[in-house]
Amino acid sequence: xxxxxxxxxxxxxxxxxxxxxxxxxxxxxxxxxxxxxxxxxxxxxxxxxxxxxxxxxxxxxxxxxxxxxxxxxxxxxxxxxxxxxxxxxxxxxxxxxxxxxxxxxxxxxxxxxxxxxxxxxxxxxxxxxxxxxxxxxxxxxxxxxx
Length: 146
Prior knowledge:
146 residues; mainly alpha; 5 helices; 0% strand
């Protein structure tokens, strides 16, 4: 029985590897990324099941709002390329500061909310753990030649 399970596991791994290898190099598997992120952060923060149940909806909402603000910041950066007159430059600077303030306010609000679900030390570690995950994904992509 153990051998059958082991063989099935190996076959599944080989099959999934071949399917993954057939994808184009730059195709992004969002579902796989999200699953890895959940596992990584849950493990690093040592979230208990009851914490994780409340943590992930808050974290995902925070991330969506933050990503939207980052997209807005990116638009401002693209608008600032090339020749920009002085009034347009000042307008873009003001927009940038407004978004940065909104990001700070969002982070404060998120930290306040999340500290009701996880401990303050877990909340403090969260930023570093999130960056560690992104670094790990980046390194894996570099090793795989992507």
